């Protein structure tokens, strides 16, 4: 029988229990969960519309809807009246008997599903989805909520449909179902045919500050004009045909407030009649500049195309003069937009207007006008940063996706804090007015303006061009866009708190209000963390940790190009990223998007192993060293300190053999036994042993536990006795056979003696508990929260720009009287 050399003596053992008969076998339920099970089992079956690579299939189709609209803004009544002609192109292979339209203004009617299903959380008076991070001891209603109730009660809201007719002005039968309308066609609409219909409608515009909508008006009572002035931001302002797709047919899920809008691409021809002293901006390109702009304004606009910095088309002084205008009459502004999925606009006499051209390499669209519209309340903050942020967004996003295909990118200040539409976005931050007639802005407002402009302008790419279904999968526009706006803000200024870093999502991922990212928008408990931050962090980790930038950027750009001006689903994104990167990502997408697992990898133990050579001269000497390295007993140490002599020391002339040889002394018999075994080894075994002895490397076994359930790569940093450090990445596949616990052997050179190790030291994987990342365990530094929340909040919004104008006063010195 040949004897092999046992190279490693493990510091742990395993055991098995065998029974003598079948009746004694104890069966147990298995607990294995395959975290690497193929996601394809859960995705829709690939077909000729959407193939297995995540591309539009050979028979991909989508509908087209064209609009010609004439609309009048009644400023005094704050009311819209419109007439529109809809041309619907049926590109689907199916015959349609009716069309569904979205009537989002009906969402604010008292009998709407949205209003009747709204909930009261009893904490801050909000009637939106409850925040269950904590409970309040009592219920309360805020003044803002009362204001909302009063406005809804005092105004007749929702669409008023005056007529629905066909191309020959014959009435069509229609049925209104909440915030939707079904129009029955006089004859079925087959494949590759079009139909035209007309709708006359009106509605009362919402006061955005009162109701909290995505559009509406804002009133400025103190402007130098009798009755004050308004800014109108108009969106969801006309009946829009719902989407009809290969994967859902009619998208007729009711608008409840959270789920945004999925629409068809089409061409828009829109004329807006407004008070003659208003400035209007909109989706598309102005067609009649000679009729609505002065010669000076047209000249400035032309100059702005090649300017190095923004040029005022309407200056601050001109806008201020407009605020006190008493001009009567109206003007009609005419805009056209091709191949867009929506149309929004803004109108006010308060607008300052600046513009700057952005040049890009795209031969089809080399020139883009970046523009901003804002009242005097926007002040220097908007003048400095709005248009600059627009251009920065186009530069960064185009690098990751495709060149910007539209002729304009617009940022408008008004009552809406942040909302996006093709070519135009509504953004909220402003300056602060002081008694000394100056305007300043806080650092927080500056950061917010830059961040929100980047985010909302970025939405032109997702979902205005890559046309995902926001109502069903909010993360596909908000999450992907948040990922990109994080990149753009870091490239603007790394100190901007808008980075979408892993640490931004850890509290949410271990909370009790987490739901899977794939949850439909209206059912999400915490929309911000779920639809914005968590998917953005996931993509950040996918880029920086899992795939690396080169593979991720290639796959992401491939996805963007494949689905430009088309309608992707989550399966198209997942399949494209995997197919184009060449990496199996099913475990990643399943864990991050379909579960509520979180990342918590614990480094439980590190065992140091040593080569067991069976050579007694080597092994016994090592045992002697280990024995001598043990701490000396207190009693022995104190005896030595007191000078007490042992019997052996006092009788050195009377010692026997055992006093002169310790328990680790080697005998010739043991040497002969080893030599015989060594001679029986195969030559290759002798070579392996000789090399291992010569190299004398260190063998460490690391025991890891996956406490959060979400499998991730293990980012390991090792620190050695000589002060050197080494970083290792153990891929997520290490968990494939044992998703809860794994062990890993790590071998280091002789001089690299390990003293400590840490998992994910830089916080790159969103690990929710860093205390168990260290071995040995360490004291974790933590900031002491020394101030109340109100004080911290006040510090955040310090207006140092204004406060530092105050003259420094000499401190008073009080003289104590004797």
UniProtKB/TrEMBL annotation:
Keywords: Signal. Pfam families: Peptidase_M1. It comes from Shewanella metallivivens. Residues 393-592 form the Peptidase M1 membrane alanine aminopeptidase domain. Residues 795-818 are annotated as: Disordered. InterPro entries: Peptidase_M1_aminopeptidases, Peptidase_M1_dom, Peptidase_M4/M1_CTD_sf. The keyword Signal applies. This is M1 family metallopeptidase. Residues 1-22 form the signal peptide.
């Amino acid at each position: 029988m040949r004897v092999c050399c046992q190279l490693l003596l493990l510091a742990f053992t395993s055991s098995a229990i065998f029974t003598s008969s079948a009746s004694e076998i104890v069966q147990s339920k298995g607990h294995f969960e395959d975290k690497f099970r193929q996601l394809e089992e859960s995705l829709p079956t690939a077909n000729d519309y959407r193939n297995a690579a995540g591309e539009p299939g050979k028979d991909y189709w989508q509908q087209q809807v064209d609009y010609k609209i004439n609309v009048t803004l009644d400023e005094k009544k704050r009311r819209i009246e419109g007439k529109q002609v809809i041309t619907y192109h049926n590109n689907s292979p199916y015959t349609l008997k009716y069309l569904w339209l979205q009537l989002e203004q009906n969402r604010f009617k008292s009998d709407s599903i949205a209003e009747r299903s709204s909930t009261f959380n009893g904490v801050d008076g909000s009637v939106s989805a409850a925040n269950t991070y904590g409970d309040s001891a009592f219920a309360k209603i805020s003044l803002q909520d009362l204001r909302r109730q009063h406005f809804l009660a005092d105004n007749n809201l929702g669409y008023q449909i005056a007529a629905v007719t066909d191309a020959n002005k014959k009435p069509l039968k229609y049925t209104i179902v909440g915030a939707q309308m079904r129009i029955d066609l006089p004859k079925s609409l087959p494949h590759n045919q079009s139909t035209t219909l007309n709708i006359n409608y009106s509605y009362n515009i919402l006061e955005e500050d009162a109701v909290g909508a995505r559009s509406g008006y804002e009133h400025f009572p103190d402007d130098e004009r009798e009755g004050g002035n308004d800014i109108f931001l108009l969106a969801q302002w006309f009946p829009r045909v719902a989407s009809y797709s290969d994967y859902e047919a009619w998208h007729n899920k009711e608008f409840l407030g959270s789920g945004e809008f999925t629409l068809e691409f089409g061409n828009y021809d829109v004329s807006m009649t407004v008070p003659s002293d208003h400035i209007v901006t909109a989706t598309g390109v102005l067609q009649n500049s000679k009729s609505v702009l002065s010669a000076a304004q047209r000249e400035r606009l032309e100059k702005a195309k090649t300017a190095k910095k923004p040029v005022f088309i309407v200056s601050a002084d001109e806008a201020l003069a407009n605020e006190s205008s008493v001009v009567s009459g109206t003007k009609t502004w005419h805009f056209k937009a091709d191949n867009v999925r929506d149309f929004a606009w803004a109108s006010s006499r308060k607008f300052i207007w600046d513009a700057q051209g952005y040049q890009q390499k795209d031969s089809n669209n080399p020139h883009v006008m970046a523009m901003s519209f804002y009242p005097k309340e926007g002040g220097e903050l908007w003048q400095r940063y709005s248009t600059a942020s627009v251009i920065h967004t186009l530069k960064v996003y185009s690098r990751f996706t495709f060149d910007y295909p539209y002729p304009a990118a617009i940022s408008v200040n008004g009552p809406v804090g942040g909302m996006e539409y093709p070519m135009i976005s509504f953004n909220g931050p402003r300056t602060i007015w002081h008694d000394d007639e100056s305007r300043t802005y806080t650092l927080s407002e500056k950061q917010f303006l830059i961040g929100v402009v980047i985010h909302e302008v970025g939405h032109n790419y997702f979902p205005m061009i890559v046309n995902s279904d926001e109502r069903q999968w909010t993360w596909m526009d908000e999450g992907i866009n948040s990922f990109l706006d994080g990149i753009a803000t870091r490239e603007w200024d790394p100190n901007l708190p808008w980075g979408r870093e892993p640490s931004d999502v850890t509290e949410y991922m271990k909370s009790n209000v987490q739901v899977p990212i794939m949850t439909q928008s209206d059912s999400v408990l915490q929309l911000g963390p779920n639809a914005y931050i968590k998917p953005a962090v996931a993509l950040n980790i996918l880029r920086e940790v899992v795939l690396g930038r080169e593979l991720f950027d290639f796959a992401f750009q491939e996805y963007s190009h494949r689905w430009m001006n088309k309608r992707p689903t989550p399966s198209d994104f997942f399949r494209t990223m995997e197919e184009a990167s060449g990496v199996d990502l099913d475990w990643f997408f399943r864990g991050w998007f379909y579960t509520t697992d979180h990342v918590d990898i614990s480094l439980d133990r590190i065992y140091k192993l040593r080569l067991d050579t069976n050579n007694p001269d080597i092994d016994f000497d090592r045992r002697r060293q280990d024995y001598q390295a043990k701490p000396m007993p207190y009693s022995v140490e104190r005896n030595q300190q007191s000078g007490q002599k042992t019997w052996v020391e006092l009788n050195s002339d009377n010692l026997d053999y055992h006093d002169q040889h310790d328990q680790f002394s080697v005998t010739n018999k043991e040497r002969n036994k080893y030599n015989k075994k060594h001679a029986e080894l195969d030559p290759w075994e002798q070579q392996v042993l000789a090399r291992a002895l010569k190299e004398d490397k260190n063998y460490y076994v690391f025991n890891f536990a996956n406490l959060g359930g979400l499998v991730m790569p293990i980012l390991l940093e090792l620190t050695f006795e000589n002060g050197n450090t080494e970083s290792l990445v153990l891929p997520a596949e290490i968990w494939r056979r044992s998703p809860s616990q794994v062990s890993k052997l790590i071998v280091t050179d002789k001089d690299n003696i390990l003293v400590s190790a840490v998992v994910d030291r830089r916080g790159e994987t969103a690990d929710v508990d860093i205390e168990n990342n260290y071995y040995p365990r360490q004291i974790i530094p933590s900031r002491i929260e020394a101030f109340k929340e109100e004080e911290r909040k006040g510090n955040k919004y310090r207006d140092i720009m204004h406060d530092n104008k105050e003259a420094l006063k000499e401190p008073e010195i009080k003289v104590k009287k004797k």
